[in-house]
């Protein structure tokens, strides 16, 4: 049983000083300051100075602590040391406060004032009075003591106001404030008078942001190492830099130049109540380096704000609104930036690789028609909307080109061409909107095609094959896997009348993924609507994949054609515009790589972080400036902390286990030798570990390897052993085959244990395990279990039918 002793900090420090002075020694480890380690170091220096200035005739003090001849030199040395350490600690403390997007900046000043008051009027005054009253100090010692206390009296003296903080942080180079730029003038009424008012947007200097980001320890090196790793397996396309479009953009650079892709993104978001009197849409432009290591690609911290403005200001022309961003992108491509590295200064160039966004955002910035009801709504081709209703495959003769785009601009008739105006991004040397091969699979599939198909499938099945009540009951009782972050909402009883499923894009993905397990036993194998659902599954498997090889481009082209044909024949409906977008997806794979990596989902998550300061403040006077400043303060904290861009290994709560407790401890023979474990050894284990941005928990299914035929070898994670690189103890999973009716593998578990490392997994992303509700499709064993292998937004596996073939390419 552990006994705890509660003692006040002032009493503890008083006791420590008295004992140290009586014993004539300084025990730095004895001084404990529960609140912060800043005061501990200061107190240690006070101890040292007092000992150094003790009576020279006291042999105890002389033998324990060497003392310089002059007290002033000692005091000056410690004064500088304390000032530096306290200043750094205060800088980091305030940066952490500013790093909280939901904390209004006005409260930062209050917190600084309160902490200063606590230090000066509370801790230090009590501590100083205790020291003076309990120790007999001469005048020199009192002088040293006063200097030491003055050092720690107000550590925020250089950060006393927001003006001083911004000035100090800007001078250090870590804080990069946004810059206001004029967009135009509006006529406003003030005090019954018509006046002209200038309107502004906010832009962030990308040169400074990218320089700071790449000068984070090992950031540039980590990116270059990842790029070199892609060269080892050129057949497997995992990133934009491996594809045709990037190769054409880099032709003017030499092989020795460091050139990185920079994706630009534009979208609009609502910062106020959209139904209220103060509804306000903001135009947000972000950029992201397009070749970050996989574990860094989805982090919102690695997406940088470039522009922020009221979206209504686009009436002044895109040239004025996007002007600062275009100039920066041109500078980055033509001149690059100098980055300090351990190997010296290196020049890094950035090319605007893709303009990302949803269909409305990209079409509007690209100068195309913004409505799906336009005669020529597609930004990739000039196919009339009447023809797109039955088009199942791309017509290469109708693809837009730079020449046809210029001709359409000269025609100046959007009803005949689909082009409204020239794209402002065409001013960038290596960019043209007609070669901007980017799509938004999140909206095209999750909030488009998948929604339409599932509505048609449900209309066919309800109530002929099952009722909405039965489906909702199974949804409520469904046992989700440890990898499933989303939950399927129950369906409204009037969904057929409303012609809409109340689901987000992510929830629709989950619904499509689990629909076969939920209700597949109620649907005949040869039902045409069920075949349409399975075609949708296969299509989503390819589109949500994060890696593919050249054969998958052909497979996707065939899959899209079959899917569109089947949809028209089964439902009797024409193809909607988002179905037409699918015919261009094979070309997108060839030119820009996996479409899952250029989805808007991660950028929309950035919106939530951007809008957090807007919801935390009541002021709307200049909301763009408020949001931009707060965002840059968040970035400042990230740069100030100098943490690696690669996520660190993070373990959950640790506990002790004995290897002999496992049912089959023979696996211990194959554990890493540096663990020095035997059958009877005990070691630390954890409930979870986050490794390279992926969280692992016992109960997950891992793709450990492939067998001789190229089929998957599964393992169920049983335990996570603590070590510098986690050790996974897993039980073997017997793959009984693929049930194509529910599009899942049927498996059974065994007691045979083995161990592996997350570095050696065939696919690092874990899979979900789900029990069938009725067990009708899994009759072989008493416990019927299905492992969903194609996890859409999680797995690297592409097409369920070609899984055995493709796994050969994944090693």
Q: What can you tell me about this protein's structure?
A:
With about 800 residues, the chain is α+β, with helices and mostly antiparallel strands. It folds into four domains: about 160 residues, no CATH class; about 250 residues, no CATH class; about 140 residues; about 160 residues. Helices cover about 40% and strands about 20% of the residues. The chain has 27 helices and 18 strands. The protein has a seven-stranded mixed sheet with strand order 1-2-5-4-3-7-6, with helices on both faces. It has a six-stranded antiparallel beta barrel with strand order 13-14-15-16-18-17. A three-stranded antiparallel sheet has the order 8-11-12, with no helix packed on it. The longest helix is centred in the first third of the chain and has 30 residues. The N terminus and C terminus are likely disordered.
Unreliable runs, pLDDT <50, ≥5 residues?
1-81, 775-811
What Rg do the Cα atoms give?
32 Å
Q: Largest beta sheet, briefly?
A: 7 strands, mixed
Shape assignment? globular
Strand content: 15-25%
Number of strands: 18
Spatial arrangement of strands, main beta sheet: 1-2-5-4-3-7-6
Provide the number of structural domains: 4
> Could you say which structural class the secondary elements and strand pairing correspond to?
alpha+beta
How many helices? The count is 27
- N-to-C terminal Cα separation, in Å? 52 Å
Helix content: 40-55%
Query: Averaging pLDDT over every residue, what do you get?
Result: 81
């Amino acid at each position: 049983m552990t006994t705890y002793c509660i003692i006040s900090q002032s009493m503890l420090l008083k006791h420590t000083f008295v004992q140290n002075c009586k014993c004539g020694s300084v025990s730095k480890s004895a001084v404990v300051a529960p609140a912060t380690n800043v005061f501990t170091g200061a107190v240690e220096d006070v101890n040292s100075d007092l000992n150094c200035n003790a009576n020279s005739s006291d042999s105890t003090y002389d033998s324990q602590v060497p003392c310089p001849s002059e007290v002033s030199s000692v005091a000056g040395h410690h004064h500088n040391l304390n000032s530096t350490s306290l200043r750094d600690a205060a800088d980091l403390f305030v940066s952490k406060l500013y790093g909280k997007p939901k904390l209004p900046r006005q409260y930062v000043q209050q917190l600084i004032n309160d902490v200063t008051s606590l230090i000066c009027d509370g801790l230090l005054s009590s501590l100083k009075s205790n020291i003076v009253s309990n120790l007999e100090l001469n005048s020199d010692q009192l002088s040293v003591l006063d200097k030491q206390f003055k050092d720690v009296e107000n550590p925020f003296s250089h950060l006393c106001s927001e003006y001083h903080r911004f000035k100090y942080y800007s001078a250090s180079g870590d804080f990069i404030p946004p810059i206001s730029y004029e967009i135009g003038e509006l006529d406003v009424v003030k005090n019954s008078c018509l006046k002209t008012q200038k309107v502004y947007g906010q832009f962030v200097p990308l040169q400074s942001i990218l320089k700071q980001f790449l000068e984070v320890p090992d950031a540039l090196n980590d990116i270059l190492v990842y790029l070199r790793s892609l060269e080892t397996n050129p057949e497997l396309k995992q990133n934009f830099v491996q594809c045709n479009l990037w190769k054409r953009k880099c032709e003017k650079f030499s092989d020795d130049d460091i050139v990185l892709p920079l994706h630009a993104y534009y979208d609009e978001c609502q910062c106020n109540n959209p139904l209220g009197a103060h509804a306000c849409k903001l135009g947000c432009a972000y950029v992201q380096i397009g070749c970050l290591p996989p574990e860094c690609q989805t982090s919102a911290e690695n997406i940088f704000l470039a522009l922020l403005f009221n979206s209504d200001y686009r009436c002044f022309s895109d040239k004025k609104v996007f002007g600062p961003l275009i100039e920066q992108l041109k500078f980055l491509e033509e001149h690059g930036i100098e980055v300090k590295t351990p190997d010296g200064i290196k020049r890094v160039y950035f090319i605007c690789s893709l303009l990302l966004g949803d269909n409305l955002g990209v079409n509007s910035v690209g100068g195309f028609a913004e409505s799906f009801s336009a005669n020529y709504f597609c930004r990739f081709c000039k196919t009339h909307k009447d023809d797109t209703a039955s088009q199942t495959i791309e017509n290469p003769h109708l693809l837009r080109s730079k020449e046809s785009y210029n001709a359409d601009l000269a025609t100046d008739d959007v009803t005949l061409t689909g082009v409204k105006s020239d794209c402002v991004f065409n001013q960038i040397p290596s960019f043209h909107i007609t070669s901007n091969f980017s799509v938004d699979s999140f909206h095209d599939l999750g909030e488009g095609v998948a929604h339409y198909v599932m509505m048609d499938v449900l209309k066919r099945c309800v109530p002929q094959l099952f009722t909405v009540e039965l489906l909702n009951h199974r949804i409520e009782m469904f046992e989700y896997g440890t990898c499933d972050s989303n939950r399927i909402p129950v369906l409204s009883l009037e969904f057929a009348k409303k012609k809409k499923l109340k689901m987000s894009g992510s929830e629709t993905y989950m619904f499509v993924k689990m629909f076969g397990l939920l209700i597949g036993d109620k649907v005949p194998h040869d039902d045409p609507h069920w075949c349409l659902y399975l075609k949708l599954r296969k299509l989503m498997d390819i589109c949500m994949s994060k890696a593919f090889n050249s054969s998958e481009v052909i497979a996707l082209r065939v899959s899209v054609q079959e899917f569109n044909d089947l949809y028209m024949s089964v439902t009797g409906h024409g193809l909607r515009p988002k179905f037409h977008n699918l015919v261009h997806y094979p070309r997108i794979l060839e030119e820009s790589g996996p479409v899952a990596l250029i989805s808007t989902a991660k950028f929309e998550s950035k919106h939530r972080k951007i809008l957090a300061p807007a919801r935390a403040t009541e002021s709307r006077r200049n909301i763009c400036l408020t949001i931009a400043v707060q965002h840059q303060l968040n970035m400042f904290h990230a740069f100030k902390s100098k943490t690696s861009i690669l996520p660190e290994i993070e373990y959950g709560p640790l506990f002790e286990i004995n290897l002999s407790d496992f049912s089959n401890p023979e696996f211990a023979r194959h554990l890493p030798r540096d663990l020095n474990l035997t059958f009877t050894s005990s070691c630390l284990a954890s409930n979870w570990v986050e490794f390279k941005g992926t969280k692992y928990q016992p109960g997950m299914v891992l793709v450990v390897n492939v067998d001789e035929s190229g089929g998957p070898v599964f393992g169920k994670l049983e335990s996570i052993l603590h070590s510098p690189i986690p050790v996974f103890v897993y039980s073997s999973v017997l793959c009984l085959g693929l049930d194509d009716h529910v599009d899942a593998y049927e498996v059974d578990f065994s007691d045979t244990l083995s161990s592996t490392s997350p570095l050696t997994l065939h696919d690092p992303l874990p899979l979900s395990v789900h029990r069938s509700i009725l067990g009708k499709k899994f009759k072989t064993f008493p416990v019927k279990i299905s492992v969903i292998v194609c996890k859409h937004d999680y797995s690297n596996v592409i097409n369920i039918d070609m899984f055995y073939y493709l796994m050969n390419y994944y090693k």
